[in-house]
Amino acid sequence: MSGKDILISVRNVGVRFMSRRSLFNRDYVEALKDVSFDFHHGDSLGVIGRNGAGKTTLLRLLGGIIHPDTGEIINNDASTALLSLQVGFDPELSGRINVVLSGMMLGFDRNYVEENLDKIIAFSELGEVIDRPVKSYSTGMSARLGFSVALELNPDVLLIDEVMGVGDVEFREKSTAVMKEKLLSDQSIILVSHSAGTVKNLCNRAVWIEDGVTQMEGDSAEVVEAYERYICDNGKGKK
Amino acid sequence: MKKKQSLKHYIQLIQLKVAANLRAEAARNYLSYLWWIFEPILHMLVYYFVFGMLLARGTENFSIFLLTGLIPWLWFVKTITNSMGSISQNKGLMMQVHIPKIVLPTIVICQDAVKQTVVVALLLLFLVLAGIEPSWSWSALPLLLITQILLIAACAYLVAAVVPFLPDLSFLISMGLQMLFFCSGIFFKVEDVILDKHLNLFYMNPMANLLKNYRNILLYNQWPDWQALIIIVVLSLVFIFVMSLVIRKFDHVYPRVVL
User: Fold this and answer.
1) Across the 239 residues of chain A, what is the mean pLDDT of every consecutive 10-residue run?
2) Number of folded domains in chain A?
3) Could you give the number of structural domains in chain B?
4) Residue in B13, B255, B256 closest to A105 by CB
5) Which domain holds residue A212?
6) At the N or C end, where does chain A have fewer CB atoms within 10 A?
């Protein structure tokens, strides 16, 4: 599937956050040190690494939310939508208006979002509840809604942050199926996870990040295998 | 698939969000929209009690005098206070999508401005009911409102831009607003209280200046002090321009500092 045009290219990217202790005492936390990879159109790229490896920071970089301190990210005009557990919904507003607002914030035209509104609501399976304020939703419900927005609006690149474990089994299976379908129809996905299984299952390529540095990039099966071996050797991993 | 991020797109977004916020705000309280009116009236009653009765500072028509000062003042304070947190309170959103951060304080400014138009309309009604004859000078009111919204926007952008970097500043800003309250001639007649030699200094405060003009056109049949208004408008516009550049410059830095 790969080998097509490069959508996003990440070159030696580093990000450090300033953590303020007090007025004159500050130090830096390096979330990413040196990460590089190319992302091609139609690819499904899994970013794998342990907690604190800098995966979420990487997604924020790819989504254009923050800029890197060193290195560069070259985005060839691809629209991105970030999906994560904490969806940026306004709890006081209804699900319906939140869908329109978040679609527009993702950069989509208002008419386009409204045309797709019914599809989005149908996919989320929220039904009548859609007109109630989001604060009355459960975590699973709002994650489902956020997931539906990003899936149905078809951004060039879907950025997914550990969201696959959300919702009941049925919804999880449905979204996995839809994502596989999207992959076949050329949707590009970047998925972040510390679960090797998810990456192996859904991605054709993978990048392994350890301590803010790219360890390996390539075919997902190979990368996942190397990652699992490393985790076993260190004796720190879950599996 | 459409992707556009023109100015028009963001104006639509702001409109939608402001309308939704106003509706949600009303739905949250039992008395909903009535609070917009009750709030200034309750303030008025408090100051009437303290300054009009206890301190015996009341002038004739003291309630009208208080209201014409309090209503524009509350607009100013509220928008500034709401703008302080406008960027850091939307941290969840900022981590999710990239939006120009100037949208956030702009939503606050627009939301409070919509409320204010309703409140001002009721103020006019109240004045008529209280026996004040509408005069031609009332026609200058829209210009005063525009001047004030520009002043408010300038200050709101300033605090919205700075507070995320220095959260401690919000305490100082609250103090500053309180000081400004006492220095704006809300509950006293400026000519009776302020010494002549301090008058110029007193009117350097744009809010004091605006309040004087509000009262002149609404209560005393006088045209506003055009020169002062033009100065406020020009300075505010310069400030708005500079602050919008500053906020744009830090667009990708805010998500890091509010973390």
Assistant:
1) 72 84 73 90 87 84 90 86 74 90 87 91 88 87 84 84 66 77 81 82 88 88 88 64
2) 1
3) 1
4) B13
5) 41-68+78-234
6) C
